[in-house]
Amino acid sequence: MSEADAQRACDFGSFEIPLGNMRSRTRFATAVLITAGLWIVGAAASHSQVRGTQTSAATTGAPDQSGPTFTINERDLHAPPTVVAYGDMRFTDPANVTATNPVARQALIQRILEEKPDAILLNGDVPWHGGDPNDYEVYRAETQVWRDANLRILPTLGNHEFAGCGVPQCLANWWAAFPKLKGRRWYSVRLGTKIYTIALDSDDSLLPGSDQLLWLKNQIASLPGEVEFVLISMHHPPVADIQTRFIVDHNPRPNEIALAQFLQTAAASSRARFIVSAGHVHNYERFLRDDVVYLISGGGGAEPYQIDRTPQDLYQDSGFPNYHYVKFVLDGHILRATMYRLADAGAGTWESKDEFEVHAK
C-alpha cells in the first residue's frame, strides 16, 4: 500500500468488517445516524431528478441484510461519544471564492478538529466537481489534519460528486478518495454500543418496494431494544422550508418525501427516536414532524443560500450566512445537539446558535 493509499484508508479509523452477508446477524446500538448521498447520471449535477438504479448486490448489499457493514468498538470511542454532522463543502481550488468560501471551509475543518469527535458525517457535495480529481486532492490536503488526528470520516454522495463526469468515472474518483467504501453506495457503521450509522443514496430510489428501502427496513428492524436514538443524515432533505422565491429547485422531492413517510411509520413503532440531518440547502433549518427531528446542515462552505423561513421551522434566527456544523453528544438517555455558527470567518470566531435535546422514549 502506498503512503497516499494508507492515508485514505485512515478515513474510517479503526473498524471491523463483519464476515458473511449479515443475513443472520444482528448488531446492537443506542443511536442510528443515517447519512444519505446522491447519484446523478450524466455529466452535470442536477438538483431535481432521481436517476439511475442499483441492480448489483456488490453495490447495494442484500435487501434483507441486517447488522452493520462496519463496526467500531466501544473501547475506541470517547466518553461520552460525540458525532459531528455537516455538508456541502465543495472542496476545490482555494482561488475559487464564488462556488465556495475557502476561508470558511478551512475554519470549519480546524474547529471540527478541535472538537475531536468520534465520527464526522459528511452530508454530501464534498468536491465541487466529482469529475475533477484535483478537487479530491484539495479535500485530502485540507482535511489531512483530521487523518493525522485519527478522526473517522464517514462520507455520503452528493450531486456534485457526479458533476463533470459519467457515473463510472465519478464513482471511481469517489472510491479512490474513500477506498473502504468501494463497491458500496449505501452502508452502515456500528459506532460502539450506542450509535449506529446508516448511509443512504438519495439519488437512488427510496420509494416503496425499492432495494434501498427494503435494505433500510431490515437495518431498522434489526435494531435491538437498547436503541434509543436514530440519527438520519442525508443529502437531499425530506423536510425543508418550502421556497417560492429562492432555490425552488431545492424543495423536497418525491423520493425523499417517501422516506419521510416511511419514517413516520418507523418512528411510531420503534423504541428509538429518529433525527434526520440533510444537506443540499446551504443554510440551517430544524423541524419536528411526526415525532421525527429534521435538520438541514448544509453550511460547510459552499455558496450560501438565502431562504424564507416558514413558521414550522424551529430555527428563526435571521443571521446570514450560516456556515456551521452540528455537534451531537450522548448524555445518558439524552442526545444533546448544538449548532455552532461561524460568526466571523476572518477572525475565526464561533457562536452557539441553536441547542436542542432529544430524550429517549
Describe, in plain words, how this protein is organized in 3D.
- The chain has one domain: 4-Layer Sandwich (Purple Acid Phosphatase, chain A, domain 2).
- The protein has eight helices and 14 strands.
- It has helices spanning 3-9, 57-60, 102-115, 133-142, 144-148, 167-177, 211-221, 254-269, and strands spanning 31-37, 70-72, 82-86, 119-122, 153-155, 187-191, 195-201, 229-234, 273-278, 284-289, 292-297, 324-331, 334-344, 349-359.
- An eight-stranded mixed beta sheet has the order 2-6-7-1-8-9-11-10.
- It starts with a helix and ends with a strand.
Strand order of the largest sheet: 2-6-7-1-8-9-11-10
**In percent terms, what proportion of residues is strand?**
15-25%
Taken in chain order, the helices and strands follow as: HEHEEHEHHEHEEHEHEEEEEE
- What is the CATH-assigned architecture? 4-Layer Sandwich
* Inertia-based shape: globular
**Low-confidence segments, ≥5 residues, pLDDT <50?**
1-10, 17-32, 34-46, 51-58
Mean pLDDT: 85
Helicity level, as a percent range?
A: 10-25%
The level 1 CATH classification is Alpha Beta
Outline the biggest β-sheet.
Answer: 8 strands, mixed
How many distinct domains?
1
The CATH homology group name: Metallo-dependent phosphatases
Radius of gyration computed on alpha carbons: 18 Å
Give the class from helix and strand content and strand pairing.
alpha/beta
Count of helical stretches: 8
Here the CATH topology equals Purple Acid Phosphatase, chain A, domain 2
